[in-house]
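Lab manual, section 2.4: Encoding a predicted structure.

Procedure: take the sequence of the chain (497 residues), apply the prediction step described in section 2.3, and record the output as structure tokens. A sample record is shown.
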Amino acid sequence: MMKRATLTSEAGAAIGDNQNSQTAGDAGPTLLQDHDLIEKLARFNRERIPERVVHAVGTGAHGKLEVTNDELPRWTCMKLFARAGQSAPVFVRFSRVAGSKGAPDTARDPRGFAIKVYTEEGNWDVAGNNTPIFFIRDGIKFPDFIHSQKEDPHTNRQEPDNIWDFFSHTPEATHQFTILFGDRGIPASYRYMDGFGSHTFQWVNANGDRSWVKFHFKSDQGVRYLSNQEAAVLGGKDPAYLHHEFYSAIARADYPSWTMSVQVMPDAAAARYRFNPFDVTKVWPHGDYPLIPIAKLRLDRVPDNYFAESEQVSFEPSNFVPGIGPSPDRLLQARLFAYGDAARYRLGVNHTKLSVNIPRGVEGGARNYGRDGAMRADDNGGASKNYQPNSNDGPMQTGLSSGLGYPLSGAAGITPQQHHAEDDDFTQVGALYRLMKDNERTRLVENIAESLAQVSREDVISRATENFRKADPDYGQRVAEAVSRRRDAMVRPQGEY
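Recorded output:
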């Protein structure tokens, strides 16, 4: 057997672990000292010029988030949620994950569901998806995952071999693959799909009491999806079908809305919960933590200029306001760096000065000591000092604690994800499969088989099928049989590709 080459950093140093990032103990946050993680993410963010590396195909709209629940101060001191009736303007962008600019927006792919809320305390971004979970749980694997979904470096097309090879080695992705290849994989409209914050976040109230929360946005129009055949026809006629459908609805004043809800977990419950509540590959069962409606999201205006807003908007999971902050979710921790870095590369260091990104809810706008940089179009701070502390009445820190810390233990370094009593990659997938009606299962299996049957390596097919089998024996068996039927019926092309 040929010896495998050693994986190295850009400087040639051998990498000991490419699966886990360095954390403060087995349950703590990711560490900035992890050079391999930072280098990998920073390089990944600079791989495309100038479009987004992911979520390049998108549709944006303006609207409003209006609070409907008076009970929220018990969990958070966010001023937006101080009482029912308060509201803030928003900009929302829907998008495909893997497609490059010009790709059809009807392809089977997760959809971004990103919300910028212009609150009086600053911009709050919820950069989520139309699924409550994701494919991986550690940000160090994100570049690898996206590479497997994007164009192959040799064939320059999305290759089933790459998609399924990565999946076969990544059992944690089984949950998201089941959603992706099920009925929810292709929304019939952005108006008819749900959105999720996906990650776990922390809320802190005025007394400093912490809770853990997940955000849900349920479509008030209901949920509708397209079959593979319908999507192929609509996308073939109009690659921007979902984009045009959404714009047409707004033009005829058919304004969409979503009910925003939260799940709230007490801080003390997290450590003893039966699975890791910060694992983004899992959902919190509603029987444990029911949905609590808190607000209405309504969209009623599309941008006058697509590039100025939908293309230049930047969503950063690190954009928090007092009362909300991050959790130890490892994928979220990586996104806190990666999204802002992507915007600085793609749009420039002054992207926050663009109209769609300016914190319009804050009196006087953003005030800091950032200066210079490409495309600085304002007065660049004029004659004011560009350092702090200073003696010229420049902006000062408040001195107030955010209250968003949490206790840590353990040694700094690379550690696997913390496991709770019922942590595994397959239990929730099996439960989801068994919740489906038989016709839904049939469509799920056939959608998987249509893609998996194109894979050239039998070992990849076998590993992928085994992941489904571990979730539910019937699931795996039906996938195996469907793939076998399709491969037997395939007319294999001859000659060079």
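Check your result against the sample. The chain has a mean pLDDT of 92.
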